[in-house]
Amino acid sequence: MSETASSIWIRGQPFGKDRFFVIAGPCVLESEDLALRVASSVARMCRELDIPYIFKSSYDKANRTSVESYRGPGLEKGLKILERVRSQVGVPVITDVHAVQEAAAAARVVDVLQIPAFLARQTDLVVAAAKTGKPINLKKAQFLAPWDMFHVVRKAESVGNRRIFITERGTCFGYNALVVDMRSVSLLSRSPYPLVFDATHSVQIPGGQGTASGGERQYVESLARAAVAAGADGLFMEVHEDPDRALCDGPNSVPLNEVFAILTALKDLYETTRKHPIRLQNEPVLRTA
C-alpha cells in the first residue's frame, strides 16, 4: 500500500491518522538487557491490543540539566544496542539525533529519526535528518506556539521528506513548570501529518530537582486521555521497569507494569472518539508544501 502524508508505513505497519499507535521505551539506553526486556514486553502488549509500536530510546541525551547527568552509551555503542532490539524483537526503533553529523549514521540503523524539542529550530539538523529519507519525528519546542511548527515542518518538506510525525510535549509556564494546552493538540491534529502526544515529558518539571529534572508521573494517564480525545493519533511514553532507579527522566517515566492498562484505556478512547469527530471551524491548519 502506498504512503500518504497521513499514513507512514514502517516495517509493514501503518502509523497514521486512522489507527492509534505507540512510541515507548526507556528515555536513554542504560543497558542492552534492559532495552530488550522493555521492548519485548511492550511489543507483546501491543500485539495483544493490535497497536502499531515503535521502540524509543536514545544513545545520547545531550539536553541534560547538569554536566554530571547520565547521557547514555554514545553513538557507536548505542546504535549497536538499537540494532539488536530491532532485529531480535522485530519492532521499528526511533532515537534522538542532536548533531548534523549523526543523522546519516543513525539513519543506517534506526527506522525513525527524532529531533529533540530543544533543537526544533536548528535548521541544519532538521534538514540533515530529513535528507536521509527516513521518517522524522519533529518534537514541538517548549517555547514554540503550535502554529510556529509550520516553519519546522517546512524545513523537512524543503528537501522532499513528507514522512513526518509532529509531537506535542507541553509548553514552558514560568520556571520549572510545563503546561499542556489542549488547544495545541486540537490545532496540530488538523495538519495532514500524524500527531503524537508525549505524555511523559509533558509532566516533567525541568530542573525541578536542582541537578536533574523532576516529574509527576501520576498525571501521565489523565493527560494522555485528554490528548487522545482532543485529536492525538499516537502516544509517546517513556517506560522503565523501575522508574525510581532510572538513570534519566525517572520521575516522569511510567512503570512497565502499568503500561498495558493505560494502552487498553487509550485505544478504547481513541476508537470511541473517532466515531464522533470534533467539528472545528476557522481553525488554522498546518499545510503540506
Would you mind describing this structure in some detail?
The protein has helices at residues 32-49, 75-89, 100-107, 123-131, 149-157, 182-188, 220-230, 259-274, and strands spanning 7-10, 13-16, 21-25, 53-56, 93-96, 112-115, 136-139, 164-168, 171-172, 178-179, 195-198, 204-205, 214-215, 234-240, 254-255. The protein has an eight-stranded parallel β-barrel, surrounded by seven helices. It is globular. The protein starts with 6 loop residues before the first strand and ends in a 15-residue tail after the last helix. The chain contains eight helices and 15 strands. It has a single domain (15-274), classed as Aldolase class I (TIM Barrel, Alpha-Beta Barrel). The protein is an alpha/beta fold. Strand 6, helix 4 (123-131) and strand 7 (136-139) form a beta-alpha-beta unit.
SSE topology:
Blueprint: E1 7-10, E2 13-16, E3 21-25, H1 32-49, E4 53-56, H2 75-89, E5 93-96, H3 100-107, E6 112-115, H4 123-131, E7 136-139, H5 149-157, E8 164-168, E9 171-172, E10 178-179, H6 182-188, E11 195-198, E12 204-205, E13 214-215, H7 220-230, E14 234-240, E15 254-255, H8 259-274
Parallel strand pairs: 3-4, 3-14, 4-5, 5-6, 6-7, 7-8, 8-11, 11-14, 14-15
Antiparallel strand pairs: 1-2, 9-10, 12-13
Helix pairs in contact: 1-2, 1-8, 3-4, 4-5, 7-8
Percent helix range: 25-40%
Please give the radius of gyration in angstroms.
17 Å
CATH class type: Alpha Beta
Give the strand tally: 15
Largest sheet: 8 strands, parallel, barrel
Shape: globular
Here the CATH topology equals TIM Barrel
Q: State the separation between the terminal residues, measured CA to CA.
A: 23 Å
- Output the strand order for the largest sheet: 3-4-5-6-7-8-11-14
